[in-house]
Amino acid sequence: MSPKLRVGVMISGRGSNMASILAAAEAQDCPYEVVLVASNNPEAAGLGFADERGVAIWAHDHRGMKRAEFDRLIDAALRAANVEMIALAGYMRLLSSEFVESWKGRILNIHPSLLPKYKGLDTHARAIEAGDAEAGCSVHIVTPELDDGPVVAQARVPVLAGDTPETLAERVLKEEHRLYPAALAKCAADVLQSRSPA
C-alpha cells in the first residue's frame, strides 16, 4: 500500500469539520491519515468523537499561558506524532508567528467566507448586510496574518431572500464538510507526489 501523509487536526469545539476529515480518511484511496487530534480545550466535544474512532488525542488548556508558550506545547505533541501537515478545524485561537513559520506551507484552515472577503468573525451576517448574492467557504494555507494565506479551494452557496446568519451558516457548513476533506486530500497527494522519484 502506498504511504499516506500524516495529518494532525487542531480543534477547539465540536469538530464537525474534523469529523468529515476523519470520515474521508476511511476510504482506502485517501492520500492522508489522521494521526492526532489536538485541542486547546480539554472539554472539546470533538476529542471524544476522535477518541471513539481510535485516533490519538492531545489536549491542554491554553488559559493562563502565553501564546508562544502554549504553541510550543502543541508543536511538541504534533512532532511527537510525526505529523506532516496540520488541518485547523474550528481551532479558535490565533497561532504565534513562530509556530506558523515552523510549519510554513503545511497548515490548512477552513474559513466560512469567500476569501479575501470577510476575514475574521461574523462572516455570514456581514455577507447578508452587504447584499451579496453568494457566500461560501475557503480552504487556505495559513500565514501569520489572519485568514490571509493563498486559497487552495472554495465552494459557493447562494444567499437566499430571507436568509439569516444561522440559515446561511447551515448551508455553508454542508459545503465545508464536502470541501475540506477534498482540499486536504489534494494537498496531501501533491506532497506525496513531490516526494516520489520521477
CATH superfamily: Formyl transferase, N-terminal domain
Gyration radius over CA: 17 Å
Query: What is the total domain count?
Result: 1
Strand content: 15-25%
User: Based on DSSP secondary structure assignment, what is the total number of beta strands?
Assistant: 7
Portion of residues in helices? 25-40%
- Secondary-structure class: alpha/beta
Mean pLDDT: 96
The first-level CATH class is given as Alpha Beta
CATH architecture: 3-Layer(aba) Sandwich
Pathway: Purine metabolism; IMP biosynthesis via de novo pathway; N(2)-formyl-N(1)-(5-phospho-D-ribosyl)glycinamide from N(1)-(5-phospho-D-ribosyl)glycinamide (10-formyl THF route): step 1/1
GO molecular function: phosphoribosylglycinamide formyltransferase activity
Family: Belongs to the GART family.
Site (Raises pKa of active site His): 147
How would you characterize the overall build of this protein?
- The protein is built from six helices and seven strands, in the order βαβαβαβαβαββα.
- It is an alpha/beta fold.
- Strands 3-2-1-4-5-6-7 form a seven-stranded mixed beta sheet, with helices on both faces.
- Strand 1 (5-11), helix 1 (16-25) and strand 2 (32-39) form a beta-alpha-beta unit.
- It is globular, with a radius of gyration of 17 Å.
- It holds the Pfam family Formyl_trans_N.
Offer a few descriptive terms:
single chain, 198 residues, alpha/beta, Rossmann fold, 7-stranded mixed β-sheet, 38% helix, 22% strand, globular
Summary, kept brief:
The chain has helices at residues 16-25, 45-52, 67-80, 97-102, 123-129, 165-195, and strands spanning 5-11, 32-39, 57-59, 85-88, 107-111, 134-141, 151-158.
